[in-house]
Amino acid sequence: MRTFISLMLPCNALAFSVHVLGDWGRRGQFSQVAIADKMRSVPHDAVISVGDNFYPDGLQTNQDEQIRESWLDIYSPEKPWYVALGNHDYHGNIQAQLDIVNPYWNMPDKVYSFNIQNHTFVVLDSTVDDELEQEYEASLDHLLIKTNMQSSLDCMRDSKQ
After folding, report:
1. Is 123:111 a contact under the CB 8 Å cutoff?
2. What is the distance between the alpha carbons of residues 24 and 32, in angstroms, rounded to a whole number?
3. Residues 98/108, Cβ–Cβ less than 8 Å
4. pLDDT digits (tens, 9 = 90+) for 75-122
5. pLDDT score recorded for residue 3
6. Using omega within 30 degrees of 0 as the cis cutoff, is the peptide bond preceding 56 cis?
7. How many Å apart are CA 16 and CA 117, to the nearest integer?
8. Using an 8 Å Cβ cutoff, are 29 and 55 in contact?
9. Backbone phi, then psi, for 25, in 5-degree steps?
């Protein structure tokens, strides 16, 4: 898996802090509790998840017990989470992640943008087949056009490569 994240701050920008993680939905296993404890100890404005949110096979519904067991109980979110889908999330029902109702969970679509201060981040799901690739490119083009190009543009994606 290769994950590409770029964060560019102009010299006069106000500082902000984000935690970036992926491959985290493991019900606390594989050091996830220690990672979550460390994240809570470092001040931050948001969390960016780059995919593979619920192992091994995604979610079945937006009420799936994994939401509590792997996210709420482990990470105890108190800041916004901006979430991308990964290839493991496709083993389940991806609509379930789009439909999670929690004030800290942000995944309005497979391709979306969000702002932190004057910085626009674009989230895209790169786990697509050839048929959907054109649809995603059109969505990305639309987001890039509507983005204020005076701010930096940051892209995050999960890739199963």
Report:
1. yes
2. 7
3. yes
4. 999 999 999 998 889 898 999 999 999 999 999 988 888 888 878 888
5. 44
6. yes
7. 8
8. no
9. -80, 75
Average pLDDT over residues 10-27: 77
Which pLDDT score, from 0 to 100, does residue 135 have? 65
Ordered by start, the domain boundaries in the chain are 4-158
Contact 57, 30 (CB under 8 A): no
Closest C-alpha to 28, from 19, 40, 36: 36
Answer for the pair 117, 16: CB distance below 8 angstroms, yes or no: yes
Structural domain 4-158, CATH architecture: 4-Layer Sandwich (3.60)
Give dist(CA 42, CA 16) in Å, integer: 12
Start-to-end CA span in the chain (Å): 5
The two tokens of residue 24 are 């985290």
This prediction's pTM: 0.76
